[in-house]
Amino acid sequence: MLNLKDISVTFNEDTPDEKKALQDIDLTLGEGDFVTVIGSNGAGKSTLMNVISGSQRPDIGSVEINQKNVTLLPEFKRSMFIGRVFQDPMAGTAPSMTIEENLAMAYARNKKRKLQKGVTKKRKELFRDYLLTLNLGLEDRLNAKVGLLSGGERQALSLLMATFTEPDILLLDEHTAALDPSRAELITNLTGDIVKRFNLTTLMVTHNMQQALDLGNRLIMMDKGQIILDIDGKKKQELTIEKLLHEFKRIRGEQLDDDRAILG
Fold first, then answer.
1. Based on the number of CB atoms within 10 Å of its own CB, is 2 exposed (0-12), middle (13-18) or buried (19 or more)?
2. Distance in angstroms (rounded) separating the CA atoms of residues 244 and 52
3. Taking the C-alpha atoms of 8, 14, 17 and 21 in order, what is their torsion angle to the nearest 10 degrees?
4. What is the C-alpha to C-alpha distance for residues 78 and 2, in angstroms, rounded to an integer?
5. Predicted confidence (pLDDT) per residue in 119-142, tens digit
């Protein structure tokens, strides 16, 4: 479903501030894979997500989604088959529009545009059914402005908007990091449920090592623009935070120094 080959990205090339954000990245995700991505600040995680979404073009290498080469395809065209949830709960929704208007925009993402009502009676019932799965009471607030929702409610709505059209790839970019612990746990549980329900091919970046261990069937660790660890199946199920830290030290010869990644 996703194939990255020989991806490299360098910022400020040939200057004193040159930074190799990604170096010779090869990554393949099969249909239904749920891959969690961890690494310290500056490891290249966000750049990896941007390359997949199309907001960052690689210097070299290719990006294939569902066996189609999309390397030169702009971000707005890739959005037809990519769903993305950002760290900031304000980023994935239009705050001045109602819940049903936001859902109508997301619903039309992978459909041919034509002149018609954005919210029909039939569509409103569909939205209500989807909102019911969140167990947040939002199905009774379809006409509420999204800007009035709490951060956790907005992030739950963003997650629903990114997934209910069943995109080829779902990108979760530290989507619980800005929430308080109780709301973060809620969104984490919703994520697991939604990905499983739709069998979505998912790439999730997180600083929280325990979250990376609890979710998904595969885990990759990045450092200095490289994938240094790739573990799946039974080996992932047996991982602990201590084992992950040990693996990092074994590979790099030093301790992982990002407290956020260690403490989660």
1. buried
2. 26
3. 0
4. 13
5. 778 889 999 999 998 999 999 999
